[in-house]
Amino acid sequence: MNLVKLTAVEQLEGLRSGAFTSVELTQAHLDRIASVDGVVHAFLHVNASGALATAAEVDRKRAAGETLPALAGLPIAVKDNLTTIDEPTTAGSKILEGWVPPYDSTVVSKLRAEMMPILGKTNLDEFAMGSTTQFSAYGPTSNPWSLDRIPGGSGGGSAAAVGAYMAPLAIGSDTGGSIRYPAAMTGTVGTKPTYGAVSRYGLIALGSSLDQIGPVARNVQDAALLHDVIAGHDERDSTSLPEDLGSMVAAASNGSLAGVKVGVIKELSGSGFQAGISARFQESLELLKAAGAEIVEVSCPSFQYAIAAYYLILPAEASSNLAKFDSVRFGMRVTPEGNPTIERVMAATREAGFGPEVKRRIILGTYALSSGYYDDYYGSAQKVRTLIQRDFDAAFAKADVLVSPTAPTTAFKLGEKIEDPLAMYLNDIATIPANLAGIPGLSLPNGLADEDGLPSSIQLLAPARADQRLYSVGAVLEKAHENVWGKRMIDFAPEVKAGA
Amino acid sequence: MAKAELMNYEQALEKFEVVIGLEVHVELNTKTKMFCGCRNDFGDEPNTNVCPVCLGLPGALPVVNKRAVESAIKIGLAIGCDIAPNGRFARKNYFYPDLAKNFQTSQFDEPIAFEGGVEVEVPSGQVYKIDIERAHMEEDAGKLTHVGGNTGRIQGAEFSLVDYNRAGVPLIEIVTKPVYGAGAEAPELAAAYVRYIREVVKALDVSEARMERGNVRCDANVSLRLHGAEKLGTRTETKNVNSLRSIERAVRYEIQRQAHILANGGTIIQETRHWHEDKGTTSAGRPKSDADDYRYFPEPDLVPVAPSKELIEELRASLPEDPATRRKRLQEAWGFSDLEFRDVVNAGLMDPIEETVAAGASPQAARKWWSGEIARQANADGKDVSELNVTAAQVAELAALVEAGKINDRIGREVLAAVMNGEGNPGEIVSAKGLEVVSDDGALMAAIDEALAKQPDVLEKIREGKVQAAGAVIGAVMQAMKGQADAGRVRELIIERAAQ
């Protein structure tokens, strides 16, 4: 039996029934990493001994008949912008090379409390700025479906690790699509929960008002398992929601579309989307209808300003969030020749430590916040944000969930668009509005595009705090796809050729 | 540094109208810091009261200290401000090595308290209304110690040490509107205002309020304009003036300095200035223009501070009496004349006298010691009485010793000098030095008889009714007893002897 090919649910069943131990399961994933990650490069750091130690502890407790947490023994990968005590955390940047945080992020604490062996830290665009993982200071990650293509970003590492069976589950973070877009590129499932549903404490901030941590998985039920573990109020994050949003596992198990109104966002379909993606999307609307849903069209006219607003708000917040990387207390320090004043040391460190996309956004954000420009740029962008929230409010008055393709195209080649930031920013056209409004979104594989045989995807959006709807609708649609295609989407992925 | 030329003070006032503005920073005495659970005690071993939040480590998030918010509201109410129903924090962005995140979490356009006013009395008895623009919450920065170089400033230092114990300590900044019309009393008014704020925060028990420890710090803005001119003159901001006396001196100095420049056709540079206590001068700091760009924007990691009406009213009801009422009450309780009481207030002796009375001394005795010997010493040292090494309890003990006739006033002054010299408490010093007055009538009588033997005609004179003749003998006896006798008792004994 190839343990890594099992779903997370199946792996847990195997652990509970004694079919295999957590050490065996963890070792199987470590072996898989050793065999394919040389070509995929999903991981920046693998912690075999730490993962195996946790696994052994779970096995010991299970043998002793002790009560264990629900996901105990199930391995997991973590995006490298969440702090892990005693393990390097780089956020994909040279400026943090070698930094070992003295504290765990809240989400990582929860994984440890759940006794999930943490396999390692996954690759990302530097400080999560990018949609292809090519802006990682440690080299790009490849798409398991086609190694010369992007896995999406910024969380390409987490998506590729799960997509290539190196981990059954992974943690991602989504500021403008960094969980959903890589899920779309790799035929996996990724959720951005409602803003505040998961604690951001210990997540190296990109855009504080947009960032949200979420699960990466190969199917809806597996994503729900992880979602339930990481969600919940945290007193260390003032923006974390006080209320419990319910069980995602229960929502996924009791999925039903009877009487559900599904809104199709007019502005996120048709032109600008690859033909194969649009075709699959239309087929899914039919599947939803067949399952009992009512399809309605909704309009969100302010979405045309979403990318412009996002690329003012995000860089503004990022320029301030990244100011702490100054060489004084942690991380890289570059001492220039001559008189090393503090200003010169800070400048030299930031010059050497930050990559081009990071610098671009710091400059943009600094400009947008400058006195005299604030109202025109940051101020206007905040107004657009309000308009987008109103668009969603109006849309959700007509529909229970909204749908759109997650991404305008399937995975493109590594190196493409890299010199054209504006073209690159368009990758997130469908995902960004959810971050601006703080609402939850889930990306689900949606068949393969006819042109290139690569994964196509559909995004489900729900009102703030109604994360459960994503899972109940997602689970039904996933089942319908499986019936149409004869097997799960991920099973169409070609075997990764080690050493290719 | 060339010494600036000054215009004669009276001349300056004849020519110019003085406008001042005061920014007072009050350090709160909360147990923990503004945004984390670290102890608010920066006198500890450097960098021991620190955590990921106040060190600005990647991923850390702030949480507002509720007690600090309550203190801010109390201060706001006590100085007549309105309380914002939705106060927001903002980031003030600038790079400096003592600022862990390279932004200060402060408040910008939505301070917690705004539009207040207080009435302040100056030594002449004149009362001025000072309008308060705002009081806002913010965090302190770390403490820098510059090593090497001559100035103790960052320029020229070999290296600098940073202590982040102070980083994140809660501060309330109280800002006045421009204060007009104080004329020659502007320096006294500045000092009286800061004293008033000190009294307020002390009475509220929200700060230790010790200026010499930096619990209360004042930045004094001064500008001049020709009498009758509408436009405000260019102002300078003298930073961190740390005693009431220095505030008065610094404002006076700036008036004279600016007057000289303006009268000679020069222009005032808008800048911060440093106060030099030893020389009694200010020197140029950094240029400060209205174009200083801190790129303020709302702090996305914190939700607005929204105190309920109930909380505000509860805090309002808990406010102690205002300083004016308190003064009236204490003057009545102590039975001081208007003149006596005004002297006490202007010398900043109300608190120590109140504490000394509370410790058991009579009001007049407490006043005598504080406004006599102790104030004299403070004046000679150029310090505030609070900076001297003597406590209210020690003064009360001293007064009790005099009251009980154990020592006389002259010995009392000697004991007080020893107390301020750090030799111990009054009682200990009296016994250690053997200063207790000789209350043994036998010993006194022996000394009297010895003195009378040298001046045999004295007894006869007394018997004739010339009681003042005893004076010569008292002097001789006191000399023989090295001053350690109660002169009154000696007098009684001589008269008794004459009656025999």
How does this structure look, described?
Chain A is of the alpha/beta class and 500 residues long. Chain A has a single domain, classed as Amidase signature (AS) domain (Amidase signature (AS) enzymes, Alpha-Beta Complex), CATH 3.90.1300.10. In chain A, 39% of the residues lie in helices and 12% in strands. In chain A, strand 10 and strand 11 (455-461) form a beta hairpin. The longest helix of chain A has 24 residues, at 375-398. Chain A starts with 7 loop residues before the first helix and ends in a 15-residue tail after the last helix. The model of chain A has no long low-confidence stretch (mean pLDDT 96). Chain B has 3 domains: 9-314, no CATH class; 321-433, no CATH class; 441-499, Orthogonal Bundle (Arc Repressor Mutant, subunit A), CATH 1.10.10.410. Chain B is 39% helix and 19% strand. Chain B has helices at residues 9-15, 66-78, 186-203, 244-263, 309-317, 323-334, 338-346, 350-358, 363-381, 392-403, 409-420, 426-433, 441-454, 457-463, 470-480, 487-499, and strands at residues 16-27, 82-83, 90-93, 103-106, 113-121, 127-139, 143-147, 159-163, 170-176, 216-226, 236-241, 271-276, 281-287, 297-298. The N and C termini of chain B lie far apart (77 Å). The relative contact order of chain B is 0.10. The model of chain B has no long low-confidence stretch (mean pLDDT 91). The chains are: A alpha/beta (500), B alpha+beta (500).
